[in-house]
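Dear Dr. H.,

I hope your travels went smoothly. While you were away I took the liberty of generating a structure for the chain from your last submission, since the lab meeting agenda had it listed for discussion. I wanted you to have the full record in hand beforehand rather than looking at slides cold. The sequence, exactly as received, is reproduced here:
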Amino acid sequence: MLHKLSMTKTADVEPEIAVKVLVDKIIFSGKLSRRDHKLLTIFVYDDNDVTEGDRRQVNRVFDCIQTGQLKLIDW
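The corresponding predicted structure, in token form, is as follows:
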């Protein structure tokens, strides 16, 4: 089961893992909300060193939006 993510990063959670968990939650639900978008933005852009893994995870979301697999809600 996926855990709820808070708006802040915790020291014991690696940012790349947090991004993957969030992306998996978004894709599994089939919905991208403003809150999800904000969390994803925080995780990716607050970290000055965006990894290739982070970039791949964000691209998964973009791919799902482009193919109609994700519905944008609360926009």
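Two observations you may find useful: Helices lie at 15-29, 34-45, 52-66. The chain has one domain: 15-69.

With kind regards,
E. W.
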